[in-house]
Specification:
There is one protein chain. This protein is mainly α. The protein has helices at residues 4-14, 18-33, 36-49, 54-67, 77-85. Helix 3 packs across helix 4 (54-67). The relative contact order is 0.11.
C-alpha cells in the first residue's frame, strides 16, 4: 500500500483521480524496490522483445544501471550475463 499522503499529493498536484494516483505511486515504488538482478532480467527481456541483440543490450544495461538511484557499481558483461542466464 503506497503512503496515503503521497497518493493525495500526486492526485492533487496532477488532477488524477485518487485511484489512478494510487496505482501510479505503487508502480513507482515498485520500480525503485527492484533489486539489481530483477532490473537486469526485466530490462534484458524488454530489450530482446524489441529486437535488440545482446551485444547492444549489455551496453544499454550498463548505462541504465549507472543512472539508478542505488547504483550497484559497474558490472561487467560477464556479470550481467550471469544474472540473466544463471
Amino acid at each position: 500500500m503506497p503512503p496515503p499522503e503521497l497518493v493525495h499529493y500526486i492526485a492533487e498536484s496532477t488532477g488524477l483521480p485518487v485511484a489512478v494516483a494510487e496505482r501510479v505511486v505503487a508502480d513507482v515504488v515498485g520500480y525503485f524496490r527492484e533489486t539489481t538482478e530483477q532490473f537486469v532480467r526485466r530490462r534484458h527481456a524488454e530489450l530482446q522483445r524489441r529486437g535488440r541483440k545482446n551485444a547492444e543490450i549489455w551496453t544499454v544495461l550498463s548505462e541504465e544501471l549507472a543512472e539508478r538511484r542505488v547504483n550497484p557499481g559497474e558490472l561487467s558483461e560477464r556479470q550481467l550475463r550471469r544474472i540473466v542466464y544463471g
